[in-house]
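Entry 14. Structure prediction run on the chain below.
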Amino acid sequence: MHGCKEGRQPRRRPCQTGRGSGPRNAHHPRLARWYLDCFELERKTANGGDDPEAQGRIDVALRKRLLDEYGVFREHVTTEFNRVMDVVFQS
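Output returned:
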């Protein structure tokens, strides 16, 4: 993705999954803001048209961040992804 930078500091502890707004879910609003910022940067093509593949690329990047930076276990990535997307659509 040409406009979005992925974070650089890997998280050492696994992300705990679970409902609530405690520290274990504190990254959801931060990742939702990142997702929206990336979408704004990526959604237009060089000639100004809409890029239909932008959302797919950003979705993949979010899943990768959850795995690599936030230490989410592979079997929980979809759950955490959906929680971040819930925050995105509440915005």
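The CA atoms of residues 42 and 54 lie 6 Å apart.
Filed with the rest of this week's runs.
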